[in-house]
C-alpha cells in the first residue's frame, strides 16, 4: 500500500486549503447567523451531532462558553426521535453539526426545535441535505467530497466554522486574525508526517490506550480516540484528566500507553501535574505539545512545530493524531479508506 | 478472600434500605427545592459532577428532559475553576452531585452559579461539605458511610434523589408510587448474585469490552463501565448504540464482548436492532434485560427478575453490573474495596 495514494492521506493534506475556502466563502452566512443571535437575544445553545461532529460540538461547548459566555448543552437526540418527549428548548440557538446532514436523529432535533420557535442552524458539507433544509441558517463547510470513511478535513472545518462564529459574535478582531493563520499553522504541523510514520511502528501490537485532553482540547482527545478506533480497531478511551482521576486511573499498569494533548495555555499546568501522576504509575506517555517541560516528561514527545492561542490549538493538535491513526493503520496493513463495518454515511434514528 | 465480608458486597446489598431511608427522610427538602423551581420559573438545568456522580447526572439529563421537559446541560467545570471564564447561567437550576461534596471543580461551579443569582442545589452524602455549604438547597443521600472506594449505594441513591425530584416537580403520583417500590425491585434483583458469580469466571482474561445503553440507560452503560474499570482494571468503553454506529463499530471482531443494557420500554426496539448488528459481526453479547426476545439474541443472557417502568429501570439494571464487576474482581484476586491508585475522595480542580 502506498499511503500517499489513499483518500485519507490526500484529505488530511487538503486541510489548509479547505479551511482557507471556508473562511473566504462563509463570512456572509456566519454574519447572518450572528445577527439573528443578537436580535433574538439568545441565552443558550443546544447542539446535536454524532461521531466526529459530536467532537466538534465538544469544542463548541468550551469555546462558546469561554469566549461568548453562552451556556451550551449537548442534545439528547433520542428524546426527540425515539421517546418523542422533547424538552422545552426556550430562547436557544439549536445547532446541528453533520458532514452528510443525513442522520435522522439529528434532523429530528432541528425539526422539533424549529417547530418550537427556536433559532436553528446547521453546519454541514451538504447544505441541501435533510439537516440543511431543516435549519433556518446553514453554514456550508465547503470541504469538497470526503471519500475516506474516517472524517478528517470535515472535522477541522467544523472546528473552524465554530470558531468563525464565535469570533464574529464576540466581535473579536484578534480572534479573526488568528483564525486566518490557521491554514498556515496546519500546513506546518503536517510536516510531522515522517516522524509520526516512524513512531507508529512502535504501536503495531498496542491493544488499548487512553487519550487525555481537558478544556479546549477535550474535543481533541475524543476525536483522536475516534480516529484510532475507526482506523486501527484499537480500544481507545478518551477522558478529561479530571474525569480520569475519578476512577479510570486504576486501569493504568506499567507501560500502558496514554496520549496526552497539552499545548501551551491556561490548562498546561494541570497537564503537567497529570503527567507526573502518570509517570509515577509508569505509564507510557505520548505527548502532543509545544511546551518543552511537558515534552520532557514523555516517553514519546511529539513536538508541535507551532504555538497558537489555546482556543485555536484544537485545529492544530488533532493533526499529529490524524497522522498517527493513519500510519498505524498502514503499519497494521489495514485499509485506511475503508474501515471494516463502516460506511461514509451513518444514519441512526 | 470471602467476598461477603468486603465493604463492597455489604454496600451493594444495603441499597434497598438506603433508598428506603432517602425516600422517607428527604421529602421535605425535595419539596422545598420543587417550590423554588416553580416560583422562579426555572427554564433549564446545569449539572456539575464527576465520576459515578456524573453518571447520575446523565440519568438526570434524560429524566428531567423527558418527564419535566427541562433542557439540561452538563457543566464544563474547567471553565469555572481553571479558565475562570464561566458562562452566563441565566435562570437555571444548577445542581452539583457528589458523594463527598469535596471536589473543588464541582464546588467552583456552584459558587459561581450562586454568585450569578442562579438557583443552586447539591445532592450529596455530606450536607456539611464544601458543596453542601455552597448550595442554597441540599438533598442528603442518607446513604451512611460508603467505605468501598467504588461507589455503589451512593449511585443508586443519587438516581433515586433525582427521580424523587422529577416526580415531585411533575406532581406525578404514579411515579411516586413506582419509586416506593424501588427498594423491593432492587432487593429481588440482588438475587442474581449467585448466577453472576458463576458467569464472571468466563471473563477472567477479558482485556477490553464495550457497554451499550441508550436513553434512560445511557447512564447505566457509563456507570457499569466505570465499575468494571475501577474494580477489574479492564479497558471498558461505554456508548449509546447510536454513537457506537458512528465509527467505533469498526473495533468489533468475532468474540469481542459487548454488554447490552436493554430493559423493556420505548428503547427496546432500537436495542433489538442493534443486537442483530452485533450478532452479524459475531460479537459476544451479554444482555441485561427482562425481555425474552432480546435475551434470546445474547450469548450470555442476564435476565432481570423484575419489570419496571423504563424511567425507573436504571435503578434496577445497574445491579447485575455492580455484581459482575465485584465478582470479576474476586475471580482475578483483586481487592474489591481498595482498587489500586484510587482513594475514596478524589479532589480535582
Please tell me about this protein's structure.
Chain A has 349 residues and is of the alpha/beta class. Chain A has two domains: 3-180, Glucose-6-phosphate isomerase like protein, domain 1 (Rossmann fold), CATH 3.40.50.10490; 185-331, Glucose-6-phosphate isomerase like protein, domain 1 (Rossmann fold), CATH 3.40.50. In chain A, 48% of the residues lie in helices and 15% in strands. Chain A has helices at 7-13, 15-25, 27-39, 51-66, 77-81, 104-115, 130-134, 153-170, 173-180, 182-189, 193-200, 218-232, 241-245, 268-280, 292-296, 313-331, and strands at residues 44-49, 71-74, 92-98, 119-124, 137-140, 208-212, 235-239, 257-261, 284-289, 300-303. A five-stranded parallel β-sheet of chain A has the order 2-1-3-4-5, sandwiched between helices. A five-stranded parallel β-sheet of chain A has the order 7-6-8-9-10, sandwiched between helices. In chain A, strand 3, helix 6 (104-115) and strand 4 form a beta-alpha-beta unit. The longest helix of chain A has 19 residues, at 313-331. The radius of gyration of chain A is 19 Å and the shape is globular. The mean pLDDT of chain A is 96.
Amino acid at each position: 500500500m502506498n499511503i500517499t495514494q489513499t483518500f485519507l492521506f490526500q484529505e488530511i493534506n487538503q486541510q489548509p486549503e479547505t479551511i482557507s475556502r471556508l473562511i473566504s466563502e462563509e463570512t456572509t452566512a456566519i454574519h447572518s447567523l450572528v445577527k439573528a443571535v443578537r436580535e433574538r437575544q439568545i441565552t443558550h445553545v443546544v447542539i446535536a451531532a454524532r461521531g466526529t461532529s459530536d467532537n466538534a460540538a465538544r469544542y463548541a461547548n468550551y469555546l462558546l462558553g469561554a469566549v461568548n459566555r453562552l451556556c451550551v448543552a449537548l442534545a439528547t437526540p433520542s428524546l426527540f426521535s425515539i421517546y418523542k418527549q422533547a424538552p422545552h428548548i426556550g430562547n436557544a440557538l439549536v445547532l446541528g453539526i453533520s458532514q452528510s446532514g443525513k442522520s435522522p436523529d439529528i434532523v429530528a432535533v432541528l425539526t422539533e426545535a424549529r417547530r418550537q420557535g427556536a433559532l436553528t442552524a446547521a453546519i454541514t458539507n451538504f447544505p441541501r441535505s435533510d439537516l440543511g433544509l431543516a435549519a433556518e441558517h446553514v453554514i456550508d463547510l465547503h470541504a469538497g467530497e470526503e471519500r475516506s470513511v474516517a472524517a478528517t478535513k470535515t472535522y477541522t472545518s467544523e472546528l473552524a466554522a465554530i470558531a468563525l462564529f464565535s469570533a464574529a459574535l464576540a466581535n473579536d478582531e484578534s480572534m479573526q486574525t488568528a483564525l486566518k493563520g490557521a491554514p498556515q499553522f496546519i500546513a506546518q504541523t503536517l510536516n510531522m508526517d515522517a516522524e509520526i510514520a516512524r513512531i507508529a511502528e512502535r504501536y503495531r501490537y498496542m491493544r488499548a490506550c487512553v487519550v487525555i485532553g481537558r478544556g479546549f482540547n477535550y474535543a481533541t482527545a475524543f476525536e483522536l480516540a475516534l480516529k484510532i478506533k475507526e482506523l486501527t480497531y484499537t480500544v481507545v478511551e478518551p477522558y478529561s484528566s479530571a474525569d480520569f482521576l475519578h476512577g479510570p486511573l486504576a486501569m493504568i499498569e506499567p507501560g500502558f500507553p496514554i496520549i496526552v494533548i497539552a499545548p501551551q495555555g491556561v490548562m498546561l499546568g494541570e497537564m503537567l501535574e497529570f503527567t507526573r501522576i502518570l509517570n509515577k504509575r509508569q505509564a507510557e506517555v505520548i505527548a502532543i505539545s509545544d511546551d518543552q517541560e511537558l515534552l520532557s516528561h514523555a516517553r514519546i514527545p511529539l513536538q508541535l512545530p507551532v504555538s497558537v492561542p489555546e482556543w485555536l490549538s484544537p485545529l492544530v493538535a488533532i493533526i499529529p493524531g490524524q497522522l498517527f491513526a493513519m500510519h498505524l493503520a498502514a503499519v497494521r496493513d489495514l485499509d485506511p479508506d475503508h474501515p471494516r463495518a463502516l460506511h461514509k454515511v451513518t444514519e441512526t434514528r
